[in-house]
Each structure stands twice: as structure tokens, then as C-alpha cells.
Amino acid sequence: YNKVEVFVLFISKSSEINIKTRLGILYTFNLLDLVFSYAGLKACIISEANPIVKIIYKASPFVFVLWKVIIPLTLIVVIDRLIELCINAKVLGLFVTSVTAVYGFIILLHFRWIYLIYK
Question: Which of 26, 54, 93, 105 shows its CA 20 to 30 Å from the CA of 35?
């Protein structure tokens, strides 16, 4: 398989276990984003790109951490419940994979600013 075929297979495999694995990866990326964002914001190295999250952080860094933990966890619980209700697994799989890819890109952006600081 080439890289594109592997990606297409990953998206098309929408079994419950596969989606739950992707949800775990998604939440791990979310927690990495939280750690990198919090560290970068606290050190005044980066600024938050999401305008809603930026407002939350300025209001309270503690609420920022809660937001970054609770909202994604709630979404994961809802998606898990939808899987149990046999909602279209392929659509959920595509959604989870797409959001995970976006978070993967965000993690790469964090790695970039960390590299630029410490090179």
C-alpha cells in the first residue's frame, strides 16, 4: 500500500473498535495541545489562535484548562454513545478522523514553535 491507500483504508475502516481507537488518539492530541498551548501562553511565546479559547484563557487560565479537558471529553462520550445507538459508523469515523487530522496539524505547529525556540 502507498500512503494514500493506507489513509483511505484508515478512514473506511469504521468498526466500533477502530473508531474508539481514533477517539483515544484524538483525546491524546487534545491533551498534547493543552500542554503545549498552556506552556506557550504562560511563557508569552505564542498566542491562542482560537478566538473563543483566547477569551477563556484571558478570563481564567484555570477555566481554559477545564475547557480543553471537559469539552473534548464530552464530545467523545457523545460519539461513543452514538456508536452504541448504531448511528452511521462511517460518518462518525470520517468525522473523528478529520478532527484528529486537524489536531495532528496543530501538534505539528506546536512542534514548529518549540523547534524555533530551542534550535
Answer: 93
